[in-house]
Design a protein that fits this description.
The complex is a heterodimer of chains A (286) and B (228).
Chain A: H1 2-16, H2 18-35, H3 37-40, H4 71-107, H5 109-124, H6 127-142, H7 146-174, H8 176-183, H9 188-224, H10 236-243, H11 252-282
Chain B: E1 2-13, E2 19-31, E3 36-41, H1 47-54, E4 62-67, E5 70-71, H2 77-83, E6 87-90, H3 104-114, H4 120-134, H5 150-162, E7 168-172, H6 180-197, E8 200-205, H7 208-214, E9 217-222, E10 225-226
Parallel strand pairs in B: 3-8, 3-9, 6-7, 7-8
Antiparallel strand pairs in B: 1-2, 1-4, 4-5, 9-10
The chains are: A mainly alpha (286), B alpha/beta (228).
């Protein structure tokens, strides 16, 4: 009963924050386009060489590409690919990262030392370079597939979750309310479930939201370099790449996917910043 | 009533640095019923660690803690959690002592819920009785910790510590984070409660003047040892 009340207060607080509302609106808009793609857009694979490189018109709102495919359909279907892949990556790396980070922070000692060094090694390698290398290795080993991208980005991405979760758990473990809960005779499992995790979840949600923007950028970068999701599957970075040869004659091929990449990253960043403002009043600062 | 015999605690940090700190070095301490013992020392002298060892929040490397004739260092799990009902901690930072996501009411009622001591209506009576005893108002109960001042928070923390009628309370610098006038009222509250409820205090402080006011006996701690 109290929980329901709290969540209601909480929801209204989130939407009182302008950053949250704008960010959420942008994400909702792009997500709806992606969800409704089969209804509102044509087949993104249908080529029509007679209609190639046409500028935006009523029939083709975003114009057509070098193979005469409707760019609106491709960009809107690209939203599906980008959001789905980014979400998969975020969820997997969040699960792995939070678990490793929490174990590291909670048990401390030698486990923490070892995990800490591993995290340092991962952080020392530039992310994109690491991703490119990993995708290359996976392509040779397992053949070309979307899972290569997912796996590669998860491998570089879990580290930030582990680092943050470790820090949060470490500082929460030392907080006096955890000590007091222990002093009144609470079990460790009770303390973890009722005090540590609820207080850790806010910053992790903020990180996950901000991280989504990052992941979308990484997917698009890999796509642009030809290492990401392979054609003909529509993906923003890869559409951008295919349009770069026509940038002076048909700039709409690069403009629209670029706009959607920028918008979705902006949306997630605004939502993340807003959530941070809202959540940090309720939770502790780290 | 509570006694520490030959207590010793060494902290080690990291496998690569290999630093060790001797926090408590062979301490014998005994506190009688309804007695207030002040433990005075500089920061880093190990007084907080000693307080936490007596509450078994930190396990000593050597020595025993005897409470009402029971050796607490031999207890595990459930038995130790039962004993914890009889001893409590009032920590230094009132703003960190209560879960920031819990209302004051829930924090004060939490000990009753953990030990499943009463039903909801008894719980409410008990909480109301407690906040009256520490001088808080009913309106404070529905607030979150960040909506209370330092002095009000410390009162809530004291109320929570009293929920289970403990016999022994470690006050770990309970007033050091408060301003002067609030300090006085909190100290007075602690003294009044002791007279009414008959508890023993281990009063940890770095303020010798304060120790003289509150304590029956003063112990001085330096580098992990009791020196006087």
């Amino acid at each position: 009963m109290e929980f329901a009340f709290a969540s209601e207060v909480f929801r209204s607080r989130i939407f009182k924050n302008n950053l949250c509302t704008i960010g959420f609106g942008i994400i909702l808009f792009i997500a709806m386009l992606g969800l409704l793609a089969p209804v509102i857009a044509d087949d993104p694979y249908k080529t029509n060489l007679a209609e190639r490189l046409k500028p935006p018109s009523l029939e083709h709102p975003f114009g057509t590409d070098q193979l005469g495919r409707d760019l609106f359909s491709r960009v809107v279907h690209g939203a599906r690919t980008s959001l789905f892949v980014a979400m998969t990556i975020s969820l997997i790396s969040m699960a792995i990262g939070c678990l490793i980070g929490a174990v590291s922070g909670y048990f401390g000692g030698i486990i923490d030392d070892i995990i800490g060094r591993i995290i340092d090694v991962f952080l020392a390698i530039p992310e994109l370079v690491f991703n490119i290398a990993l995708v290359g290795i996976f392509c040779v080993a397992y053949g070309v597939s979307t899972w290569n991208v997912i796996l590669a980005v998860v491998i570089t991405n879990w580290v930030s979750y582990a680092r943050i979760t470790r820090g949060i758990v470490l500082s929460l473990k030392e907080k006096e309310f955890v000590l007091c809960a222990k002093a009144i005779g609470a079990r460790d499992s009770y303390i973890l479930l009722r005090h540590v995790i609820p207080n850790a979840i806010g910053p992790i949600i903020v990180l996950a939201t901000l991280n989504m923007g990052n992941v979308i950028m990484t997917i698009a970068s890999l796509g642009f370099l030809g290492l990401g999701i392979q054609p003909p599957t529509p993906e923003w970075g890869q559409i951008l790449n295919s349009g770069k040869n026509y940038i002076t004659t048909a700039p709409w091929i690069t403009f629209f996917p670029g706009l959607f990449i920028a918008l979705s990253v902006l949306g997630f960043n605004l939502l993340g910043e807003g959530l941070r403002d809202v959540l940090e009043k309720r939770t502790l600062e780290y | 009533m509570i006694e520490g015999v030959g207590l010793r605690k060494i902290f080690k940090s990291g496998i690569f640095s290999g630093k060790t700190i001797i926090a408590v070095d062979g301490v014998n301490i005994k506190i009688e019923e309804e007695e207030t013992v002040a433990l005075v020392g500089e920061s880093g002298s190990g007084k907080s660690t000693l307080g936490r060892i007596l509450l078994m929040l930190i396990r000593p490397d050597e020595g025993r803690v005897i409470f009402d004739g029971i050796d607490l260092t031999k207890l595990r799990g459930r038995e130790l959690r039962k004993i914890r009902m009889k001893m409590q901690l009032i920590p230094q930072h009132p703003d960190e002592a209560l879960d920031p996501r819990w209302r004051i009411y829930d924090s004060i009622a939490e000990p009753l819920r953990i030990h499943k001591l009463c039903n909801r209506s008894e719980e409410e009576d008990k909480v109301l009785e407690l906040i009256r005893a520490v001088g808080l108002k009913e309106e404070h109960l529905s607030r979150y910790p960040y909506e209370l001042s330092g002095g009000e928070l410390q009162r809530a923390v004291i109320a929570r510590a009293l929920t289970l009628n403990p016999k022994f309370i470690v006050c770990d610098e309970p007033t050091s984070m408060l301003d002067l006038s609030t300090q006085a009222s909190i100290v007075r509250l602690l003294m009044d409660l002791q007279r009414k409820l008959g508890m023993s205090y281990l009063f940890i402080t770095h303020d010798l003047e304060l120790a003289r006011v509150v304590a029956d006996r003063i112990l001085i701690m330096k580098d992990g040892r009791l020196v006087g």
